[in-house]
Amino acid sequence: MPANTITQPSRARLRGSRIVVTGGAGFIGSHLVDTLVGKGADVLVLDDLSTGTKINVNCSAKFVRGDVTDIRVVRECLRDSELVYHLAADATTRESSMGWLTPEKTLRVNTVGTLNVLEAVVKLNQDTRIVFASSAAVYGEPVFTPVTEQHQTNPISPYGVSKLAGEKLVLAYFLELGVKTNIVRIFNTYGPRQSRYVIFELLKKLQADQTRLEVLGNEKIVRDYCYVSDLVRGILLVSEGSASGEIYNISGENPVTIGDLVQVILRQLGLAGRTKVRYTGRSWKGDITKMVADTTRIGVLGFRPVVDLEEGIRLMIDSEWWQAESKGADGII
Question: Is 10 a domain residue?
Answer without folding.
Answer: no
